[in-house]
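User: two proteins, same treatment. go.

Assistant:
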Amino acid sequence: MSIESLHRGIAPASVVPRAAAKAAELTTVEASDLSIVAGAARVTVRFTADDAASALRIGADVVADLRVVADLRASLVTERVKGTWVPVR
């Protein structure tokens, strides 16, 4: 998820833990991270899912929860296929 801006009063340090906690309500979270890409904060939450539909549903729930505290530029659910991250369909 690429963050455009945080809503008033939201501490930047709370965003990644919030995203990971939301995913953890639904599945196993393997990792979470914050990076800066093209000048924007990017939150990554890596989690397990049984299939593409489950992954998309979990991703949508995490995005919906983050929209409560931030405006997002973009979001994407990806999966690792033969060493490459590709969009889940």
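Protein 2:
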Amino acid sequence: MLKTLFGSDGNGSIRASYGIFYTEFPGLAAGIMYGVPPFGYNYLSPGPPLMATPFVTAATGVNNGQRFPFPFPPHNVSASHPDTSINWANFAPLAADPFFYYRNRVPYINSYMFSIQRQITARALLTMSYVGNQGHRILAVASVNPGDPALCLSLPGCGPFGEDTTYTTASGQTVNGTRTGQSKIGAPVGSSPNYGENTEDRSMANSNYNAFESTLRYRYAGSQFLLSYAYAKSIDQGSNIGEQIDLLNPRQTRAISAWDQRQTLVGSYTLALPIGSLLRRSNQLTDGWSLSGTIRFATGFPVTLYDNSDNSLLGTLGNGVNNYLLDTPQQLPGHLQINTNGRNGRPAFHTSLFSEETPGQLGNAKRRAFYGPGIENFDMAVQKNIRMAEARSFDFRVEAFNAFNHAQFYGPSSVDGQVDDPNFGHIVSAAAPRLVQLAVKFNF
């Protein structure tokens, strides 16, 4: 049996590997952190401001207080020796201030592979592999001061995006917003107006990737062919640092990765064109011609769902790092009716199954659960080599990308997944049309 599988001596091999790899924190993690006054020199307005008066909200006329200038604190400031010269009321609430969690640990990945290789003929080689990895302690963004939905529902006039508003109860009690998490320890929710929406960059996310990969390589008389197939799946809790994690239930945000591509079939080839042999004339004009190209068939990327209604009443607002809320739509049971044909004008899925969240609750839809249109693409090139001398030659190439000009409704953002948008569920973008280019290369 083993001889059938691996052939005679030297015709087969088995390879396996395993490794643990640690990485540094990416520079972006430091770049997104900035100090708001009086800790730094950045100010993010809670609403669109007037240009002449940048601290005044244009829509309401509310003056958010002059943040600048302020004296830089002395070097001997500490928890036991605070700087008492600052008027903190001028800077409250401290909001839109992403920070690096002080107990972060270095991210790492477990990577493994098992491969079987078999030489089928003298010109054909088959490789089949299982590859996978497990990512741990991946940096992700999470809200540390979300709103309390139950409190908001109990307050007159409280609703979406009202987490930082001051309310008065029926009994005359003043409630300074509904946020919880950064209030003074022991103080009731809504008793401290000193903090708004803030996020921490925390090494708390995980990921895993598993794939079956196979390749078949064939060479003959100056021509070569390569056929590859992969069946894979990638899962994570945030495919980029802009996707928030539910700090109370991190598994809720676990979904297929934004770049997950379930099946991919790629064929590449280089054909030596025997023009000289066909014409029975070998010279600089007839020799050195070749045709090459790549053929790719692949399933689409997942559709990412968003809900910017804030019906969850959590107020996980964007601050330049997390560009979208934590919220996802509410999904009803039913057949999704997936449509990957961008030419028929139909939505990419059954949009009536999705609606804005129920007030006070996060939507039950996964961030990503189904896929958009795939790709059927052909790239081709014709090449002519002219040898000038033993060490000098010219290469002339005509290259065509998407050679047959087949519309490709393909990409991670090809389908609008924002439930509040008029184009929700529609295929809204396509890859580039046919592109042709000429190239000349001199080798010496």
